[in-house]
Amino acid sequence: LMAFTFANESLQVVSGTTTAWLPIATPWLSIAACSSQLYGKRNVVGGSLIAFDPYFGQSIVPSAIPCLPTEVTSSWMNNDPATTSVLGPTFVCPGAYNAVSTVSVNPSTQQILCCPSQYTLTTAITGKGAAPSQCISHLTPGQTLTFQTASGVGPWGVASTVVPASTAALVWPTAVYAMHVNGFNVISAATTSKSSDNTLLVTTTS
Length: 206
Description:
Elements: E1 10-14, E2 17-24, E3 39-40, E4 49-51, H1 55-60, H2 70-77, E5 83-91, E6 97-106, E7 109-116, E8 120-121, E9 135-138, E10 144-149, E11 157-162, E12 175-178, E13 181-186, E14 189-194, E15 200-205
Parallel strand pairs: 2-5, 4-12
Antiparallel strand pairs: 1-2, 3-4, 6-7, 7-13, 8-9, 9-12, 10-11, 14-15
């Protein structure tokens, strides 16, 4: 995964724990083609399809249109144990997404949970969880789907299937899960920011 740097990134240090804030102040452009970028996990029978996942363009179809801001991808993929990356302290859902829940973290902070507009909330993810289990779209029996799939370590390829009339049989797909996008709005926060010479600057916003 390519490493990104963000000019508006800010750092907050509390009790020795560093949080990298990545604000998203305006909605990411909604692109119709993104809703059809579907794939099925390798070697999964009776499973579901996944949509709005940056992995689709990174590893499956490199020419695919990016469907989420790079800030979102960076917050998910950050493996630095010393720093936690989160979206905020100003946050709005991407253009193709709607707010499905608002969680009050404390009197000055709200967490906004977002799912694509055709998806509903199934399991609220308030931590770092990257598995697509928050947003679900149940499919209609008889619906024809085209998606990317692969078996073993073989190459990805296009497949097409019809949604089964009965969900009792272990035949997939019967639903599509979409990657969630969750962020924070902070009314008042003290932040520690990086200047151009890497000096730490403490500022207060309200």
